Amino acid sequence: MAQARRRGRPRETGTDEAILDAARDLLLREGYARLSMEKVAVAAGVGKPTVYRRWPSKAALVADVARRSSTAATPDGEIPEPRPGDVVRTLVSWFRSHAQSVTDPDNAALVLALTAAAAASPQDAESLYLGSTREQHTTLVELLRAGIATGELRADTDVDAVVGALIGSSLYLLLTGRTAEAPERAEGSVRALLDGIRSPEAGAPG
User: Fold this and answer.
1) From CA 95, how far away is CA 74, in angstroms rounded?
2) Residue (of 42, 59, 41, 61) closest to 50 by Cα position
3) Can you list the domains of the chain with their CATH numbers?
4) Is residue 144 scored above 50 in pLDDT?
5) Measured on CA atoms in the order 51, 54, 56, 61, is the torsion positive or negative?
6) Who has the most CB within 10 Å: 2, 149, 171, 186?
7) Over the range 100-125, which residues count as b (16 or more CB within 10 Å of their CB) and which as e?
8) Element holding 141 (H helix, E strand)
C-alpha cells in the first residue's frame, strides 16, 4: 500500500537561517519596537508569508533568534556530567564559562535588546525570556538536582528560585554595563548563593 503523501513542503534550513540572521541583525540595529515581520522578510529576501509560515508572531521569531544565539557554556554545547561529590564545583565552573559569553559585544547587545523588548511588550515577555534563557535554565536545573541527589545540596532547595537568582545575576551585570567583570562577579555570586543551599555534610568546593 502506497504511503500517504505528507502535507505541505518541508522547511528549508537555508531559508530558516536567512530569516533568523536578518531578524537578529535588525533587532540589534533597530530594536524590538521597530522590528517587523515585513522588514525581516525584505532583509532575508523572502516573502512575508514565508516568514509567517515558520513563526506566527514577532515574539516567536525573536525568541528563536535568542535561543539560536544563546552561547553554550561547555565546549561541545552539552550539559556537563559532574562526578558524584563534584556538582558544586562543576556548577561554579559552568556558570563562570557562561558569564564569559556575555563579554562578546553582540551577545551583550542581543540580551539587552531582548530585555528592553520584554519591558516594552509585557504580553511577549515570557516568550522572550524563555527563548533567551531556556538552555541555561535547563542546564542549571539539572545540575542543581544532581547536587540534591548526591547530598551536596540541601534536599529542600527551591531549584526554580535558585535558577532565577543565578540567571538574574547575569542580567544585572549586563544592565549595569559590567560585562568585563562578568566572569569574576558571576563566580562570586554563585559561590555566595550556593553557601546558603549547601548540605551541612558537604565540604566546601575548591
Assistant:
1) 10
2) 41
3) 11-55 (1.10.10.60), 67-193 (1.10.357)
4) yes
5) negative
6) 186
7) bbbeeeebbebbbbbbebbeebeebb
8) helix 122-149
pTM: predicted TM-score of the whole model, two decimal places: 0.63
Q: Which of 84, 81, 111 is nearest to 173 (CA)?
A: 111
- Which pLDDT tens digit goes with each residue over 146-187? 889 888 888 999 999 988 888 777 777 766 766 666 667 767
Q: Tell me if 23 sits within 8 A of 52, measured CB to CB.
A: no
Looking up cell 515585513 gives 38
Rounded CA-CA distance 152/184 in Å is 23
Which residue in the block uniquely carries the three cell numbers 518541508? 10
Coil, helix or strand for 201? coil
Phi, psi of 198 (to 5 degrees): -70, 140
- From the number of C-beta atoms within 10 Å of its C-beta (0-12, 13-18, 19+), residue 9 rates as exposed
